[in-house]
Specification:
By secondary structure, the protein is α/β, with parallel strands linked by helices. The chain has ten helices and 23 strands.
Length: 379
Amino acid sequence: MSVTIAITGQALIHEPLCMDGAEAAAVCDFLKADATIGNFEGVVEATGAWPTKTKTVHAVKETAVASLATLGFTAMAHANNHAFDLGPPGIAATHDVMQRHNIRLAGSGANIAAASRPVEWAVRQHKFALFSVDLGPQGEIVYASADRAGIAPLRIHRTTALPDQDYARLLAIHEETGDAARLAARRRTGYSPSVHEGFEAFGSRFVTGERVEGRWSADSADLERLTTALRNAKSLGRIVILALHNHHWDADWAMPPGWLDRLARELVDAGADVIVGTGAPVMQPVRFYRNRAIMPGLGNFIFHTGRADVYDEKRVDVWRSVAVRLTLDAGGAMEGIEILPIQAARLSADPQSPRPLAGDDAHEIRERFMSGTSSPVEA
């Protein structure tokens, strides 16, 4: 028997939505599925907590979460760059409020075991598992550990390759400034990890290569933890959904970097049936691999940003995206895909719900979303 999963872009919400009218009803109808998944880009206000950053804090009242429940979300990802805006108290408050509104929350928790654990549920005979990880880099304080609340990491490291002459000159600068000696002292006392190839300087790692080149790779321990968990969930017969928060990696926000596509395929091989990404606030094209959907960037579903005028002035397309409804077989393979072009909800005196796009806007967004593939089944 087939199963349906509805998926949206990020919900960055500050005020309850006005859900009146036919357009709001059309969105709600589209989101009715066996599982409805989104990304909660924020944190619930917590007594005694204070901001962990100096700008762009997305802390909300419970009434905003109630709006998400009205839209029908079954579960939401929470490993993102605003989940830790109020520190561990905010994470605890968010889980409490989400639970009261029957929304499962994946990707954050009281420690690394809780943050990395999938949320699971069953509908009819189908069993679901939702994982959520953050692709960093963020400050280490936001990531959960054995004795600290936070979010689940899949840290991404950048290594820069340099030709021999450039490598030698940069290494000399590193030594002449005294940074190399300071770093060596930190390593001797265990404050910094050792590097087995090249050297670290100025917040990056450098190795020799034929040309200047940025190389991106997932942290081996984080990747092993995630792939092991994916395989375990799949072996138990779950339909496995993986949410990746992938930040603003490239100058072109409308396209995912090549390394992300390769990583996503590796995660499908490990057991993920659906991969959905958020991060850069712009929609990116879908890919298909082994009859599984890889959606690296679904953009915004609700975008209560305080920088709307900046995005509008710079003509960054943050207001148009898609909601997607997938039909899967019992094993998680895709049987069909439906696309609803969406006008994201923006903050106003009376915040509206997300609403369907129409006409040329709808056609353009649909075509852009499908532009990365010629077929819904690709090897």
